[in-house]
Amino acid sequence: MSVNQVSVFLENKPGTLNKMTEVLAKGGINIRALSLADTNDFGIVRMIVNDVYEATSVLKEENFVASFTPVLIYAISDETGGLNNLLKFFTEADVNIEYMYAFAGKKNAYMIFRVTDTKKAEALLSGRGIKSLTQEQIAEV
Amino acid sequence: MERYFQEEIECAPREKILALQNEKLLAQVRNVWENVPYYRAKMQEKNLTPEDIKSVEDLHKLPFLTKADLKAAYPYGLMARPLKDCVRIHSTSGTTGKRVVAFYTQHDIDIWEDCCARAIVAAGGTNEDVCQVSYGYGLFTGGAGLDGGSHKVGCLTIPASSGNTERQIMFIMDLSATILCCTPSYAAYLGESMKEMGLTPEQIPLKAGIFGAEAWSEEMRRDIEKVLGIKAYDIYGLTEISGPGVAFECSEQRGMHINEDHFLAEIIDPETCEVLPESTQGELVFTSLDKEAFPLLRYRTRDITTLTREKCSCGRTHVKMTKPKGRSDDMLKIRGVNVFPSQIETVLLNKGYAANYQIIVDRVNNTDTFDINVEMTPDMFTDNVGEIQNRKKILEDGLRSMLGIKAKVNLVNPKTITRSEGKAVRVIDKRKI
CA-nearest residue of chain B to A41? Predict the structure, then answer.
């Protein structure tokens, strides 16, 4: 199962990112993982949060443009070669990664992948015995 | 083969048109002097009597009329006929707080409809055609003008009015409409909607479109022509002078012929008010030569354009005007180029953005900087940086093609563009010149 990532548009000026985190904090949203893609002109924040619907609705109320993006999250063991072992399967299944980021849980590390065709990638990897995490599972790690 | 609605006058030699203009102008000045005390007072201020105007050569002596005069004389102060002779009014939207109400006698409606008929025939229309008029009907002149013109040509007229896209498409397809009249942005929207429904240009029965009432670029014309499989013709007009059809495009699609047997055009410098020679860009001024109810003399349109008398391949001899670049009152000069906010608005709408923007002009190291802040919309947003940059580049290219100079687009959060009293502040000029 893919997980919904919240993607947010940020204009390029001081304080915008902080304004966003303030809105989320007030809305009681916990950010589990975050990555920031930036250009000279603007940025896009990509986040895994505990409540995607609440997060996007509080952001929209405060005039942020936010959307859902399906991503795949996989657990890897927090040891040498952990990521390498996972990516081998991506190569075998010929899955193209658009971007990725990570967060550490209590036991494992977790990798978040945005791929071109989420459903297809998930099926191919699942066929190789690699199961992606569900929204509920993320809440527990 | 080129067809004309009124060939004798549309293709008349210059001398004949000039003779007609002289005759009509003298009669009109006399008419206004006798029947419009407001304008008579303006003439008296300049120590003018009708005898001082002996031909078109003397036109420059007459006082101008502006939107402010229309406001001061509202509603009846510029009428030259009693109300019992009038049969209709039309009115502008009044979005800028200056609503214009214009009056028409049956004769005025007739000449206006003739002008629209000329436009339809120039776009290839005949009595074999099915003409769908998707301009708004009502106080707005768009619907009524093209409707009347379509009747005069003998087209089967579909008075669709604006809105309800699904029904518009149904009529175009079911009744095989061949000519579409609407605003260019609505034509683009209809085209996109039809494309989404899987209709190809070959399947769409339309062959021509007559689009006006707002600014549009050559790029937009090509897009509309491609998606609908038609030839798109420009049409120009304003309620103060009559409505659409004051000028229209011919098969050459290079400038619009002004119906100068009815409307006399001049170009002036908007600052000094001096009359400028032909082929010079300036503000367009119109004199109604034969309107009865609401005959404006030397009305300043605020539209910036150029007049040209180059021989036209269509055979028409009437002077041509270029597509208006915008309004003289909100013109900006950036790096020596005239820029009009309306042009920017057109490009934004055409590219799927909200028409909410802010122009920021500054001068750094003696060079003008030109930034346009555009609000991000949920439709334009994706999580992919490259995709957004790509969309931004398409927007910048479109702006460059319309404006002739490069602007830097900054994407900003929704509802962050400053508004004062509900209306957005469109231009911030920080240059200290």
Answer: B410
